[in-house]
Amino acid sequence: QLQLVESGGGSVQDGGSLRLSCAASGGSGMNYVMGWFRQAPGKEREAVAAISRNGGFTYYADSVKGRFAISRDNAKFTVYLQMNSLKPEDTAVYYCAAKFTAYKSPSYVTAARDEYNYWGQGTQVTVSS
Length: 129
Hints:
This protein is mainly beta and 129 residues long. It has no helices and 11 strands. It has strands at 3-7, 10-13, 18-25, 32-39, 46-51, 58-60, 68-73, 78-83, 92-100, 118-119, 123-128. The radius of gyration is 14 Å and the shape is globular.
């Protein structure tokens, strides 16, 4: 059973930065595409960023391009989301997710919520103006 634990959330003012971490256990990092999703109150969970299992390919939602950066360390099986120039509209619970993709190309990336098999408990990010 793959387990994911997010950390690094908190409160920050408009324009500030946060770095989220997702520590995984129970599997090998090279076998999973990893993604970050967020869900604001009353809204659907949406993809923020994703990274291929080899770390070479990424996806970013248009709303965060140029501000957020996803990265991973497969030796630690930890995924990060560096968030800069945060805006109030970034306020949400952020979730780490994993999809078993060992049978796919190492460059495969997906932002499809329904494709992900494992989810963390979420960490709150609040950006005040």
